[in-house]
Design goal:
By secondary structure, this protein is mainly beta. The protein is built from three helices and 19 strands. The longest helix has 13 residues. The protein is globular, with a radius of gyration of 22 Å.
């Protein structure tokens, strides 16, 4: 009786609290790979179905690559646990052309969180604020159909490289952004030889870029791990339009990538 009474008293004094973790939708395809970037290293992955293929991106600890084993798979779940103890819950559905090929998952706003390369989240925020205020040190431009992207700045702070990209829409038609991707590829492609592209996934962006309205201009800051390029490679930032053809590409070679300013 004493044991039962003690248990009841503890239960009343400290009632159990249950919190629901919000699920985030992710679209995958059998033909295209979707990259999900986490703020910390991945420690555990649970797939609701074997039809969902998942693996860490080569050379990273915080990027998970997703693909469907076949077309039109049934909706399923994905749970990822990262080294900071955070639980990331996704509802995965099939779509031939996913709305986004890069997904940033950051359910926590803790200022002491660490990114997978060891950078402090607060340090990244401070560096991004400096980039916004810093004078331009580069100008690389791409335009298409009244929409333009300009790489205005390239900066370095310890383990971080930061890019400042200005997007302007001089047309009357809103520019809906499907994806912003970065990759390293071969400068020259030998005939009948496939070009090798290694995707670079952002550690963080200053905001989620979904749309640039007509006559609007936006400035986006992107943080990536610091990098250098061999002479045979180039670095590309690619912005694609959702349901349109006004795609943009900013391409840098090894010499141009060295035009970097320390913060």
């Amino acid at each position: 009786m004493l044991t039962a009474l003690t248990f009841i008293q503890v239960t009343i004094a400290q009632p159990t609290q249950i919190f629901a973790i919000e699920s985030h939708p992710v679209e995958i395809s059998a033909e295209r790979t979707v990259a999900v970037s986490f703020p910390c290293a991945i420690t555990s992955v649970d797939r609701g179905s074997t039809q969902l293929l998942a693996q860490k991106a080569k050379g990273t600890q915080n990027v998970l690559l997703l693909k469907a084993a076949q077309k039109d798979i049934t909706p399923t779940s994905l749970i990822v646990i990262t080294s900071d103890g955070a639980i990331h819950n996704f509802e995965v559905s099939y779509r031939d052309q996913p709305s986004s090929l890069t997904v940033l998952s950051n359910p926590t706003s803790r200022r002491d969180a660490k990114s997978a390369d060891g950078s402090d989240e607060h340090q990244i925020s401070q560096a991004m604020d400096l980039v916004i205020q810093h004078p331009s040190n580069l100008r690389k431009r791409s335009s298409n159909g009244g929409v333009s992207a300009v790489l205005e700045g390239l900066f370095i702070k310890e383990q971080l490289m930061l890019l400042r990209v200005s997007l302007g829409n001089q047309s009357a038609i809103d520019y809906d952004v499907e994806s912003v991707r970065m990759f390293v590829g071969d400068r020259r492609q030998v005939k009948r030889t496939a070009s090798q592209h290694d995707e670079i996934v952002a550690l963080r962006t200053s905001f989620e870029l979904n749309q640039v309205k007509g006559s609007e201009q936006k400035s986006l800051v992107i943080a990536i791990p610091k990098m250098t390029l061999p002479k045979a490679k180039h670095f590309t930032i690619e912005v694609t339009e959702k349901g349109g053809a006004r795609h943009l590409q900013l391409r840098l070679n090894a010499k141009q990538l060295r035009h970097v300013s320390a913060l």
